[in-house]
Specification:
The protein has 277 residues and is an all-alpha fold. The chain is globular.
C-alpha cells in the first residue's frame, strides 16, 4: 500500500521501524493469548449454563456421565489457559526483573502457539454441548457461533503457528533459558510423577532443539500450565490435568478424561457464580 499526502505520527525512533513493529507485535501476541483464554471461558460458561437447563432422557444434560466428562475436560483446559495467559501478562508487567524478561521471551511464542491452537477445538466442543442451537447464528444472537468464528483469527494474527514455533527455537537457544524454565517448573515438582518425568526431559529437548521440524512439538510441550495450576488451583485440578495431559491417560479429544477424575469438583469450580461481579 502507498499513502500519498497522508498525515502520520512518529511512534518510535526514526530509522528503527522494524524493531518498533516487532515490539508492537509482541504485545499483540499477548492480546491474542488473553483474548483466546477469555473466549474459552465464555464458551465454557455458555456450555455449562445450557447443559444445566436442557434435559434429555429424564435428567439435565449436565448430569449425564459422558457430558460431565466433556464439561470437566473443557473446564480444565479453560483454567489452564487462563493461568498461562495471565502468567505471560505478569512477565510483561515486570520488565525490570531478569527472570520475567526471560519468561516473556519464552512464554510469548508458547502461549500464542498453544492457546490459540486449542481455542478452535475448544469452541467446537462447547458448541456441540448446545447441539444445533450452538451452530445457528440468528440475528446476531448465536454466541457460540460467533466465538467459533473468531477463534482462528487469534491463531493467524501476528504470527501463525509456524512463526511462533520458530520464534520459540530462537528463544530457547539462549543459554540461560533452560535454567529459567527449570525455576518456573519447580513449584510443581514432586506433585505428580508424570509432571516430574515431563520436567526432567525438557532440558535435554531444549539442548537438542536444532531442527525446525520439531519446533511445533516443542512449543506444545513447553507449556508450563501444570506448574501454574499447582500454584493457583486445588489439588483435584492439578492431578486431573497432569494425569490427562502428561501421563498419557487422555484421548486428546475433549471428554476423554480417565474415570477416576473428580468430575463433580472440577465442574462445580467452573460454574459461574452469579453473586460475583
Amino acid at each position: 500500500m502507498e499513502f500519498e499526502g497522508a498525515d502520520a505520527w512518529l511512534v518510535g525512533e526514526e530509522g528503527r521501524g522494524v524493531p518498533q513493529i516487532l515490539e508492537m507485535g509482541s504485545l499483540t501476541r499477548l492480546d491474542c493469548a488473553l483474548g483466546t483464554s477469555g473466549l474459552m471461558r465464555q464458551a465454557l460458561s455458555q456450555a455449562l449454563n445450557h447443559t444445566a437447563q436442557r434435559s434429555a432422557f429424564g435428567k439435565p444434560l449436565i448430569e449425564h456421565p459422558a457430558m460431565r466428562n466433556v464439561l470437566a475436560d473443557l473446564a480444565l483446559e479453560s483454567e489452564a489457559s487462563t493461568a498461562l495467559a495471565l502468567r505471560l501478562a505478569r512477565a510483561f508487567d515486570r520488565p525490570e526483573d531478569p527472570h520475567e524478561t526471560l519468561m516473556r521471551r519464552l512464554l510469548t511464542p508458547v502461549s500464542k502457539f498453544w492457546l490459540c491452537k486449542r481455542g478452535s477445538h475448544f469452541a467446537q466442543e462447547a458448541m456441540e454441548c448446545l447441539g444445533g442451537n450452538g451452530y445457528v447464528e440468528s440475528a446476531g444472537e448465536g454466541v457460540l457461533a460467533r466465538i467459533y468464528r473468531e477463534m482462528p483469527l487469534n491463531s493467524i494474527w501476528e504470527g501463525a503457528g509456524n512463526i511462533m514455533a520458530l520464534d520459540l527455537l530462537r528463544a530457547v537457544r539462549k543459554g540461560e533459558m533452560a535454567d529459567a524454565l527449570a525455576a518456573e517448573l519447580a513449584p510443581a515438582r514432586r506433585e505428580h510423577a508424570a509432571f516430574d518425568r515431563f520436567a526432567d526431559s525438557l532440558p535435554g529437548r531444549i539442548d537438542d532443539a536444532a531442527s525446525e521440524t520439531d519446533a511445533r512439538r516443542l512449543a506444545q510441550d513447553v507449556a508450563v500450565q501444570a506448574s501454574l495450576l499447582k500454584q493457583h488451583a486445588p489439588d483435584f485440578v492439578v492431578h486431573a490435568f497432569c494425569q490427562s495431559r502428561l501421563a498419557g491417560d487422555w484421548g486428546y479429544a475433549f471428554g476423554t478424561l480417565p474415570s477416576n477424575v473428580d468430575f463433580d469438583s472440577i465442574i462445580q469450580r467452573a460454574v459461574p457464580n452469579p453473586t460475583t461481579t
